[in-house]
Amino acid sequence: MSVVVTGLGVAAPTGLGVDAYWANTLAGAGALDRISRFDPSSYPARLAGEIRDFVAEEHLPGRLLPQTDRMTRLALVAADWAFADARLVPSELADYDIGVITASHSGGFEFGQNELRALWSKGGQYVSAYQSFAWFYAVNSGQISIRNGLRGPSSVVVSDQAGGLDAVAQARRQIRNGTSVVLAGAVDASICPWGWVAQLTSGRLSEHDDPRRAYLPFDEDAAGHVPGEGGALLVLEDQQHATARGAHVYGEIAGHASTMDPPPGSDRAPTLQKAIQRALADAGAVADEIGVVFADAAAVPELDRAEAEAVTKVFGPRGVPVTAPKTGTGRLYSGAAPLDLAAALLSLRDGVIPPTVNTRPSERYELDLVTGAPRRADLKAALVIARGHGGFNSAVVVRAPEPT
Amino acid sequence: MTNRRVVITGVGVTAPGTPGVKNFWDLLTAGRTATRRISFFDPSPFRSQVAAEVDFDAELHGLGPQEVRRMDRAAQFAVVTARQAVEDSGLEFSSVDPGRVGVTIGSAVGATMGLDQEYRTVSDGGRLELVDHRYAVPHLYNYLAPSSFATEVAWAVGAEGPSTVVSTGCTSGLDAIGYATDVIREGSADVMVAGATDAPISPITVACFDAIKATTPRNDDPEHASRPFDASRNGFVLGEGAAVFVLEELESALARGAKVYAEVAGYATRSNAFHMTGLKPDGREMAEAIRVALAQARLNPEDIDYVNAHGSGTRQNDRHETAAFKRSLGEHAYRVPVSSIKSMVGHSLGAIGSIEVAASVLAMQHDVVPPTANLHDPDPECDLDYVPLVARDWRTDAVLSVGSGFGGFQSAVVLTDPGRVRS
Lengths: 404, 423
Prior knowledge:
The complex is a heterodimer of chains A (404) and B (423). Chain A has 404 residues and is α/β, with parallel strands linked by helices.
């Protein structure tokens, strides 16, 4: 059974909504900048990809605001946009025939920060009545389910930055089990002092102050990444259901695989290459079919090398165009891969590969990295790669819809 | 979906009281309770001062000092319990392709205890809004991202297949098993180390449940504070712990002569799309999850020998759930024994679903159903057979275990004894 994507909802630092995001991404826009939401002067990393044009009050009822973290507000709006884009009204589906599966990286961390502060500075009785759910990892699925009346199978996965693809894979399983539609993806945001301090301990944040030189995957000067906020939610649908209602199809979720790397210091090989090969096999695809790879693009030299090796072993040196538009948004944690998935589907639709911004590709990686201007290409399928801190690898193959 | 069937071949439990499967089962069948006044911190400022704590000594359970330092208590539970399950399964992991072994760990609140402690440090007791990174512990990222639980378990057992944390609030422990079962059925792995962990007995968690009066204020009688289905119930008792299982594809388990505890014959989850914490009294969505899980297992309601209830002991839950059983099981709801082990081990949020599956598996193994402790005076609206106070000898070949959680999630798992049940 085929599972297809019929709607996209995007909330990215480079654009709110699919059209704005895609136009800016093709134009090579960059949204990395000095953090504006708190004073970052005292921290060794000071840049982020913030969403600056989002006003929650314009999109959501006032009663939802006190009980939601920023990431939940963004997710609720991205869900609305995804359903609108799919021209799908959830209440018109049969009971239990539509669910929502999101990934989360660290929950509503800013909400949690504020309540921890209330607890330790003032006392337990000052902790919000909403704390019991507003910060936890399941909150986006729960709130999206309530707002849209989604009563089918829903879930939440947490696998660091690979989680967004794992959520899509779990949505595909549920559709194959008989649910017609599942909204899947992730929207993350934890740009607050407490989240920042916790992220710093990963040792992977860029300490550069020049937004154009801070996040440079596959570059000789790579020295960590810049975090961002946002992500994407995708309407996944049983193909027959989509066809029956005459829906526009962006493409098919054709293959997926995920793996776990052995621990540091192990003599066993890393497993990203296996994840890619299994995703291809799951899609029934050969490497030649893949017209573009959306890279994870960690911008940590050792991790860039591992990813480049996996890609070149499967596709050959400079064997496939590779891109990382997340250089313009920063890494959106679990939101990053669903946003790449949206970009991959738009690439398939328009026959164009968006560029990686700022990076001057190092020869040593032997990648055909698309930089500068977008590149025209006749694309049949794309591969999206996501990796998470702690050994997570996930890969998804999307295929362009059959011409009708 | 393929026809691959999934069975449980290894069980590990770290439950309140003394860790270990045998201690857990002894506690349940004796009808003893592990609820007591909170000892981890001074609970006096809080409305609810009772919890079910695990007497856990990490080093005694084989964790090295480095592991103890870098892991939150919930991660420690997960690793120790996963090792128990693997050992119990008798599966030689060295003889299996690690790429065919995955990990699914459920957790509702991740490294809450570690985050609470570390926030207090970097904020100088809540004084600093711009918290100070110079006081952050090096492994704080692992608390930020609870996916670290799946990593720790995978690295402890040598898994290189699909690995993730499933976090659906208080149904996480059932949903993690459902997720792992789906992954094996799909063919993406042959073995999954799956279960759930939580260690939420921390000031921030106690405070947040105080704020909505979800936990009991019965502080003068901690041993009898968790009272599911009783007319006097007034909230749940926070717990902690973990249960982890080895799940295997049936044919390969049989081929290696594995001890098969149970088949995960059916699983479903539905959402009430109603309220983040509230429940409608009709139990409609939980009933639907039960109906679908039974259909997947190809069982009729009459085939279920025991129902392991969510039975949290809040006013609304126990009525909601009773209604769901009547709606899904019909007349059989009045005949089948139903019990809540939360009366004895409290409510460990995301972990409890897996701990309850462990109780269900042990009920099948021993043909004994655990009781609902502290049930002296049933709520008139809770009029089923809740096995009050005393465990019951009862032939148990098929069990239904359910969960209900914040966010509206309602999940059901059906377990069968593949040797005794035709399915």
